[in-house]
Amino acid sequence: MEPFRHHLFVCTQEKAEGVPCCSAASSFRVLDALHRELGSQGLSDDVQVSSCGCLGICDSGPVMIVYPEGTWYAKLVPNDVPEIVSSHLKEGQKVTRLERIPDAGMKSEILDHRTKYLAMLKGKDAAGVLPDDIHDMIRSFMPSRAVLTALELDVFTAVGKGGTAQQIAAKIQAAVRATEMLLNVLVSLKLLEKHDGTYTNTAVAARFLVEGSPDSARTAQLHMANMWRRWSKLTEAVRTGTAVESARDNGWVTSFIAAMDHTARGRARAVAQAVELNGETRMLDLGGGSGAYSIAFVKAVPALHSEIVDLPEVLPITQEHIRQAGLSDRITTRAGDMLTVALAPASYDLVLLSAICHMFSPEENQQLLARAYAALAPQGRLVISDFILDADKTSPRFATLFALNMLVGTRAGASYSEPEYEEWLKAAGFASSKRIRIPGPVNLMIATK
Ligand SMILES: C[S@@+](CC[C@H](N)C(=O)[O-])C[C@H]1O[C@@H](n2cnc3c(N)ncnc32)[C@H](O)[C@@H]1O
Ligand code: FES
Fold this sequence. Notes:
Elements: E1 6-11, H1 27-40, E2 47-52, E3 64-67, E4 71-73, H2 81-90, H3 104-127, H4 132-139, H5 141-152, H6 155-159, H7 165-172, H8 176-188, E5 192-195, E6 198-201, H9 203-208, H10 218-231, H11 234-240, H12 252-275, E7 282-286, H13 292-300, E8 305-310, H14 315-324, E9 331-335, E10 348-354, H15 362-375, E11 376-386, H16 397-409, H17 418-428, E12 432-437, E13 443-448
Parallel strand pairs: 1-2, 7-8, 7-10, 8-9, 10-11
Antiparallel strand pairs: 1-3, 3-4, 5-6, 11-13, 12-13
Helix pairs in contact: 5-10, 7-8, 10-12, 12-13, 15-17
The protein binds S-adenosylmethionine and FE2/S2 (inorganic) cluster (FES).
């Protein structure tokens, strides 16, 4: 028996620019409409939807096959979706006007397409040109840079409920000609829509990229614009082996801590769960940033109090987050340099180093772990949360990239490997340590005194 009444395969294949494909024919909009319609008709649990690769009739995209009947629908638009859902999926009546009957003609079309496509790939290979995926990898800074500029100019807020290029250019105080180019790119990236010369935000842009919306990530993502400037000095940093100093503007601390808070809030509960808190009462959160981890941890354990140590320019932001969480009585803050600040010996059950070790050199980390060891009570635990590399340092990919992020951003920071952490923890005196993998790019090292 099938687990679902119907199983739908929607082709979302992307192909080289200019080659017909379902993705270029907006199959993603059909997929969105399908999910929305199934939700609103209460069918989400009865109908499984999978996006899939090329089904072979690419000139007739977007293409979808409905199983168990094996019905092919072609040239779909989002407005076709309600009829397919109500007629075919609910009433069992195929929508014949959209159906493409599989016959010998269709099979030869599929085979012909495949032959031509393979011939094109062979031809490109024979011509000795760079494969598309490598070409795309090299150019992939372009969409990223376009979105960062849009965030810097606060384009999505200016688009608001909709406007022409001229109106939006006036709001962001930019040239109309250039604004229009940027807006058109944002449409192609599915962050804006354009109808009759009027641009509007897509639902995702309205939710996450407009300043002031409840889930706005704009301030946090502006940190990436700062990092982009640093990454543009990567070649020089690789030559010299360290960050090339670039000025930090006034907004640096705000966008940096907002960025940290944004990722921390997404992960803090999972980290707190993975740590398996068990009756701890005193926690030390070194470089606690926005306080997101201390907040999640003390919320998880009613008797837990946390002390955050961070730099003086960061603490006003930390204190505001703690105040908003209503936890000023259980989380305190102290200004200081974690590498030198006085830490009372054997005073904490838990020391947290979240996204800290990558900022420092191996020698500084050894010093830091020794300080954490001294600050912990017997049986106390040190939790390191970071982008941890596997032993040969070539995976996970994000951790390898983050090493370069630290190269361009710090004097001596890097991503470190599990064996490096193990060695430092042992040298600091910890009796045992283990790596805990959690979903996402961050892993934990937990060591017990
Ligand atoms: C990458 S953020 C991590 C913040 C937080 N732990 C988290 O995971 O969201 C690093 C934090 O360490 C702080 N920091 C950097 N160097 C420090 C130092 N020498 N002493 C104390 N805090 C420091 C920064 O201000 C920042 O809040
Ligand atoms: S790309 Fe969708 S059928 Fe070929």
